[in-house]
């Protein structure tokens, strides 16, 4: 029963990515639960979404130390939610830095060793420039679909189910670019193996 | 049968539509907002954004009396605003069913307090159902409407953030059956003069007895017997947490939560040496059980503040459960991480911030330059409380910035300790919240001759909850064009002597207006007007720092713009984030920030 935590910054699109992942799991016939963040917390704040599926899911929240996958949309946020990852968990990390206000203001330092910390904690780490790859696919805001493409190579959901879910969940004008971004992630994931 | 992954809010909307709701009213508030947004997508149901929750409730009362099944939705603090009609509605009863869907926010993801709405069910003597997932949201809305009609009472459907904003699987038939009941005048029942109300209160009390009997046999209350060594009572999402934390425990899952099924609880309790209650926020169930003479462990172990999750539940109770069962951790197996995760307390926090180009920024910069004492209310602009703008002195609820400004001024006026401050008071609020709760305060200011200034941050939408329309936008929830309330005309009409409109992207104009109005001995209103940048993409090119000219004075950083950062002794603008508001260029003393021409 896989548990996935998606950590990022409000506006990066991880709520949509969580929906897409959940919709795919639903189409595979699983019981699925997600939790999302709306409202004030989204305004450029730290945003975490969770997706769980299996025969039967109880809590929509993943307990700390239980997640099989952490999708880090941003390095600091990856670090912040690392505690959810299990001892065997995989971190899929977008090598992207967005300075939070205390850093912009000069009151705090962006952790210089974020990559190393994630590497040393997760059992397996897949690092990529998802934002740049999404930009190449047509829109840097589709980075979430690149990360999901990588995740898909670790799961056993057929490609066409992902694509059906994409059409169902993503606004129609953004489907094409997200499909391309997803494929870029898949290609990266396969190379990684 | 269809099978879909729905949020609790979407499931409430779908359930309401299938159950034949014809009228629905709400004021947006996280985590309840999507209920009405979603319902408005369905055909043949009138949906409205009301100016505030009290009006929404009143619309709902009229509509259910008029024979239409009705849904009213709000967040927990909204029910404080609607509490006046809510408390008397049970006296007059309904005609067609009325359900109040109210969403609590434990952990305060998007709220100013952690109040527990369940007390409002008990206080009003209104039955309350509480779903544990989206599927129950869907089922319970119909059950609640039927219960409402069977017992001639409003019904509360109590939600929480993790129910409203979790997606879970719902299997349903998309079938709608409407109810259309005749309206008949019955003044003794529906006009609550004291003589009538004295007749009705005993009816309300007697009704509680009938409801209690329904609760005993409700399919939403059920016992899941497993081990007889651990017994847990829980409702809502806490049921899910308890189930996951202690899979072997026996559970009494409550769904018909008020009135509680007393016999069922006594019977369940008799099986266990020790009974646990897992609930978020207040010891609401716990107190009731103790009043019934059932000894339980609840808030003595489980936190009363913040959100629960399976972890918190397990850690709070595993020690006692180990004693009950003799099994290590009571059956909870703590996860085994691969080392120590980074210490959260040393990581830089990432609070929500005002967006690049946010029209509120210029106004708060101007207030700060004028050293104003600022009372505020609730919206995106509340985020200006954080450094560097540090723009707000006090804030409690919607509309309150106006009345608090008046009170501050009156206290300062007769104070030696605060000499000079009386003339510095400014109340700020948003366009939507001004209409929600600020208008009566403004009338008070004029009526009682105050000298303070009110700023309405008019970004032409209800931004924080996701861009809902309101009476000032000229569009309804159902997408119809309508009259747009003119805030300036309204302020003049209630007697405000000086009303002016400024563009907060023009710092010189905004600062001058604030300085003048603070100084002038009269009640004044400044409308700081510019559309939300997220709502309407605005013209303008990104700006860039000329490193030759920048002397790293950091003045531009005082704006708190997320697109601006200091790197290697010069400011840098993230051109992806910059929307070209030009505020940083306006504050720069070295003309070091320049527009990037030709970039779209």
Helix content of chain A: 40-55%
Instruction: Give the largest interface pair and sizes.
Output: A-B, 61 and 60 residues
Q: Going across the major beta sheet of chain B, what is the strand order?
A: 3-2-4-5-7-6-12
Q: How many helical elements of chain B?
A: 20
Count of spatially separate domains of chain A: 1
Structural class of chain A: alpha/beta
> What is the architecture of the largest domain in chain B at the second tier of CATH?
3-Layer(aba) Sandwich
CATH-assigned fold name of the largest domain in chain B: Rossmann fold
Q: What order do the strands of the largest sheet of chain A run in, or round the barrel if closed? A: 2-3-1-4-5-6
CATH H level, superfamily name of chain A: Pyruvate-ferredoxin oxidoreductase, PFOR, domain III
C-alpha geometry of chain A: globular
Model description:
The complex is a heterodimer of chains A (193) and B (600). Chain A is an alpha/beta fold. Chain A is 41% helix and 22% strand. Chain A has helices spanning 14-27, 75-80, 101-104, 114-121, 130-137, 143-152, 159-169, 175-192, and strands at 3-9, 31-35, 46-54, 67-72, 85-94, 124-128. In chain A, helix 5 crosses helix 8. By secondary structure, chain B is an alpha/beta fold. Chain B has four domains: 2-217, Thiamin diphosphate (ThDP)-binding fold, Pyr/PP domains (Rossmann fold, 3-Layer(aba) Sandwich); 222-331, 3-Layer(aba) Sandwich (Rossmann fold), CATH 3.40.50; 359-529, Thiamin diphosphate (ThDP)-binding fold, Pyr/PP domains (Rossmann fold), CATH 3.40.50.970; 543-595, 2-Layer Sandwich (Alpha-Beta Plaits). Chain B contains 20 helices and 24 strands. Chain B starts with a strand and ends in a 5-residue tail after the last strand. Chain B has a seven-stranded mixed beta sheet, with helices on both faces. Classes of the chains: A alpha/beta (193), B alpha/beta (600). Chains A and B meet through helix 1, strand 2, helix 2, strand 5 and helix 3 of A and strand 1, strand 8, helix 11, helix 14 and strand 22 of B. Strand 2 of chain A pairs antiparallel with strand 8 (166-172) of chain B, so a sheet runs across the interface.
